[in-house]
Amino acid sequence: MGSDETRERLQQMREKARELEQAAERTSDPQERQRLQEKSRKLQSRSEQESAMQAGDIYPEE
Q1: Which sign does the torsion angle of CA 7, 13, 14, 19 carry?
Q2: What pLDDT sits at residue 57?
Q3: Where along the chain do its domains lie?
Q4: Which of 28, 44, 57, 60 is deepest in the core (most CB within 10 A)?
Q5: Matching InterPro entries, A to Z (predicted)?
Q6: What global pTM score does this model have?
Q7: Which class for 49: exposed (0-12), middle (13-18), buried (19 or more C-beta within 10 A)?
């Protein structure tokens, strides 16, 4: 995967995480809010980990 493709995919992951967080803020259902926030956190964490791996700062978990 090329650098530009990776950067674009990471940007899409971050945007999706923001969308999930916004959806969580709009819902009145506490369980749905928690589910959306957790999904957003996982996606953001994954994008940060992949970004660091791309930069050579960390290595993937084995």
Answers
A1: positive
A2: 62
A3: 3-55
A4: 44
A5: DUF6381
A6: 0.77
A7: middle
Round to whole Å and give the CA distance between 10 and 14.
Answer: 6
Which pLDDT does position 24 carry in this prediction? 96
Task: Please calculate the CA angle 58-60-61 and round it to the nearest 5 degrees.
Answer: 120
- Single out the residue of 16, 25, 61 nearest to residue 43, CA to CA: 16
pLDDT 10s digit of each residue in the chain, 62 long?
Answer: 567 888 899 999 999 999 999 999 999 999 999 999 999 999 999 998 888 877 776 555 55
In sequence order, the 6+-apart residues with CB closer than 8 A to the CB of 3 are 54
